[in-house]
Input
Amino acid sequence: MRTEVAEAVARLRAGELVAFPTETVYGLGADAANPAALAKIFAAKGRPADHPLIVHLPSPAHLARWAREVPAEAERLAAAFWPGPLTLILKRRPEVSDAVTGGQDTVGLRVPNHPLALELLTAFDGGIAAPSANRFGRISPTSADHVREELGDRVPLVLDGGPCPIGIESTILDLSRGVPVVLRPGAVGATDIARVLGRAPETTVPQAETPRVSGSLEAHYAPSTPLALVSSDGLLFALRNALVAGEKVAVLAPTAQAITHELVTWKQAPAEPAGFAHDLYASLRELDALGCVCILVQQPPAGEAWLAVNDRLRRAAAGAGEDDET
Ligand code: TXA
Ligand code: MG
Output
């Protein structure tokens, strides 16, 4: 075992926080069976205590330690997608801490697909509760440096696994209601899920039944610079207006730089969804640090392949520039 993994396990057992890489984003981990350790997650993130956490497991064999019912559909999805970017919401066992579930009757579980995370989980041999390792409402970290920027010495140890290969958070699928419901889109799409289940998941949740999913808040995953989603024509229009007003602006667009000007910082985004997702949070962080009046993002195409990316962009646009995220 790598020495840093041994140190991480010792710290988790001592009730401390450890940040670690996953294939999606970095997580801020604590022993999911230790309520005092879980309380440190909420304190470090500034996250409301009733927002539930995902429990990361070393293998699907651990499911039944956390879920009181493991439906056949959960087994099939786990076999198909784990380790991987899919979180399953199942009915909790009674002994699962309320700090993990937010007091709900369900628990979110996933086996992440990252060698360092799997080594850590296997050595720990238990559940590690981990939200994304950012302050509440802000952009999720996709590198160890981002975690340090977000949390500083609030997290005593950050395992460095390099940049996250996927770059946006896992798909969350609720299997606790009889019909499967996608609560948060991610790299595992509704079509992938339907292929395994033989039925399509629902993708919208009736308002009254919506569980508390902080990832479902409109103002989330946001930079502090105002962010506007624009069409390609709208981009040129907004740019001209900004330059007339003498405003410094940042652009994230799939095209090469269309306007060269000292007030404009242009970042080219990959033209396909996986690449776009991979770079998205790092690009927003970089552009956010420039002190621009606005970040203009050219809206990617519609369609299922772009669903998760468009979801994060919409939330970033809704929440940008606010310091008091809900
Ligand atoms: O990719 C990911 O899922 C990353 C990595 C670290 O695994 N984690 C992550 O955690 O994004 P977090 O806490 O930032 O977002 C997890 C989402 C939250 O919106 C939370 O409300 C929801 O999962 N969640 C957790 N347990 C739930 C439950 N029992 N019912 C409904 N939503 C739940
Ligand atoms: Mg998060």
Observations:
- The CA atoms of residues 77 and 301 lie 28 Å apart.
- Residues 22, 24-25, 27, 51-54, 87, 89, 101, 104, 106-108, 112, 130-132, 169-170, 172, 183, 211-215 surround threonylcarbamoyladenylate (ligand 1) (CB under 6 Å).
